[in-house]
Amino acid sequence: METETVSELMDHISEKKLEIALKINTTVRAEMGAFLRDRGFVEIPPVIFSTVTDPLNHPVYDPSFEYEGTRYALTKSMIFHKQIIVQKIPKIFTFSPNVRLEMPEKAKTGRHLLEFTQLDLEVKGATREELMQLGEELFIHTVSKVMEKHSEELAMLGRKLHVPAKPFKAYKYTEAEARYGPEFESILSEKSTDPFWIIDIPLKQREFYDREKDDEPGILRDMDLIYPEGYCEALSGGEREYDLERIKERILKKGQTFEQFKWFLEFAKGGLELSCGFGIGIERFVRYICGFQRIEDVHPFPKVPGKVSV
Ligand code: AMP
Ligand code: MG
Q: Closest residue (by CA) to atom 15 of ligand 1?
């Protein structure tokens, strides 16, 4: 593990650029919350640990602990909690602190932290297309408000932003991959001046809970929003599988066990209806707005993969 001196860990605290990033962070969180509340969304409290959490589709270390004979994991995402509560309250969001102990090599991307916050939302009965529209409006609203309130700070950072027009461009995953190769996301991100979508992501790239297309097995009704200028992934989302038998099949296909998702499956026995949602990383959004190379520059106490942190 790479260690640093106390001064290396603390010097950035007094930098002007951190102060600006935190002011922008304040506006981003306030405006995103206000946008959703105005549209009838209900804010739910975050879940910090649980008997069930996101299995993710990439390797991370697994922090868990036992309390009174039960094993709990720190939250990697609130996907299952969202899918459960949205059955009762049809439009929900939460600012969810996630812990994902990413492998040290992830530090190279400049967009991974071990602890971050996602604005995670879910809508009952909604389609992917409706959520893409909501995502575009949320992005446009937030960037416009930041530009309005922080023009001076953005100028100090030398950051020029513009508000993109709707609808954003959408590329199908397999088509983009065939045209630009395995690095298609970063190639397209670097070439673009506006955010864009990657849709129809194949099953093997994703967790079990996103819904497969009826007419194209193996392809999901899901989407990623990608920032322009090389900033890469902003959000991931999709329609959720709601049929219990199909959920179980998908768990087995991923080589996972029913035991891992016991409480979610118990709830699902009562019947689930379609929902769709997404999660957008707040630190990545602020990094993009500020035009920073590295995500840790937006956080006073960043947890960088492979490094010791406060
Ligand atoms: P996911 O559903 O796994 O794509 O996570 C939702 C969003 O959270 C992503 O699109 C990112 O914006 C953000 N995110 C995921 N992992 C990290 C990380 N390790 N550090 C910072 N942000 C992250
Ligand atoms: Mg993702």
A: 281
Average pLDDT over the chain, rounded to an integer? 96
Rounded Cα distance between 296 and 128, Å, is 31
Q: Is the dihedral of CA 170, 175, 181, 183 positive or negative?
A: positive
What residue ranges line ligand 1, CB within 6 angstroms?
77, 100, 102, 112-113, 116, 118, 233-236, 279-281, 283-284
Q: Which ligand is nearest to the CA of 113?
A: 1
CA-to-CA distance for 99 and 173, rounded, in angstroms?
27
The pTM assigned to this predicted structure is 0.97
Span from the CA of 235 to the centroid of ligand 2 (angstroms):
6
Please give the single-letter amino acid code of residue 175.
Answer: E
Amino acid 209: pLDDT: 97
With contact defined as beta carbons under 8 Å apart, do 73 and 83 qualify? no
Q: What is the mean pLDDT of residues 137-146?
A: 98
- 5 sits in the region (left: phi over 0; alpha: psi -120 to 50; else beta) called beta
In sequence order, what are the residues at sequence separation of 6 or more whose Cβ sits closer than 8 angstroms to the Cβ of residue 217? none
Q: How far is the CA of 77 from the centre of ligand 2 (A)?
A: 11
* Span 52-86, pLDDT tens digits: 999 999 999 999 999 999 999 999 999 999 999 99
Q: Which structural domains are found in the chain, ordered by start?
A: 2-169+241-308 (3.30.930.10)
